[in-house]
Amino acid sequence: MTNFGTLNRRNFLRTGAAAGLTLAGGGLSILMPGAVSPAAAAGRVLKINTLASAAAVNVPMQAALLSELPKIAGFGEPEVRPTKKIPQIAQEVIAGAADMGDADVASTLAAAEAGADVKIIGLSYSNTSQVLVVNASKVESLEQIAGSGGTIAVNSIGDFMYVMIIGVLLKRKIDPKKINFIEMGSSGDRARALIAGRVDAVPMHVEQAAQLAEKGNYQIMLKPWREYGNWFSAIVMTTDTWLKKDENKEAAVAVLKAILTSFRKTNTDYAWYKEQVGKYASSKDLKEAPDSLLKPVWQTLTTDIKAFPNDMQTMTADEFAKMIPVYKEAGALKGTLDLNKIIDRTYLERAIKELA
């Protein structure tokens, strides 16, 4: 049976028109007995919050939701809801306004520590493709930025890249208070600020760094996967309350099967990945990127960063626990979380088994 509460307005009206549903005077005309609406035939439509933009590392997740999930019996194309404010992704899921979220680790763990109902059931990708970039003609080190009271622009204070940078500063005995951190939500705005010399360093994705390097002496100063090993940034989350219903358990497994399928295709098939980039990347430059730029990015993501583990084998409480001391030092978490109660591989293991 179609759950009309999960349909967005556009899909609802399209479905209603095809099935003879009409809205008039505030009333709803019901399907004739025996009739099957296109929505029912297509399957359940999930509400899934994601980031507002899709970089190279985000493409497999988008392909999973928009291409692979509808291939699974019982599920239609989900209502993917791009969200500019990263913490809002998890907040809406916790509030029950969305079924699942392609959310960031920092705000999700912070919400859990504050007592929110949170379950991490999968990875949007493993590690991170974001790096810290500087104009190497002006900046040679983090010590130099701190010594001059320089500025680093981040998406938001307390996010995973901010914490990563703070952790590196502390490891190198550099006082983070000597650096001026400012919030600048758009990676494009951050890049323009760096080019204009208004900031000294900015985090951006590896493909953006490669594109920027063509415009001048812009170089990567920090690579999180070399500093920490696995620096988690984005996860698939929902709530324990939502997972109590059997139909939602099945939905969780279906979404994870779609993501695993997309991960595996990305790892083994550059041509497939390139096709998905053309469909789902937000940047026109990335959509149209030549192989000379895109293939090295793909190789970095799949080989160096290992962003798409075939079985999400890095998603364990022990792996996440390695980050917690850094979050504590940065003041982003108190460190009181029982990760074993938050990270749940139950649905992931079912997905792996069913794909096998």
From TrEMBL:
Database matches in Gene3D superfamilies: Periplasmic binding protein-like II
UniProt-listed InterPro entries: SsuA/THI5, TAT_signal, TAT_signal_bac_arc
Domain SsuA/THI5-like as annotated: residue spans: 89-262
Entry superkingdom: Bacteria
Protein name as it appears in the record: SsuA/THI5-like domain-containing protein
Species this chain originates from: Azorhizobium oxalatiphilum
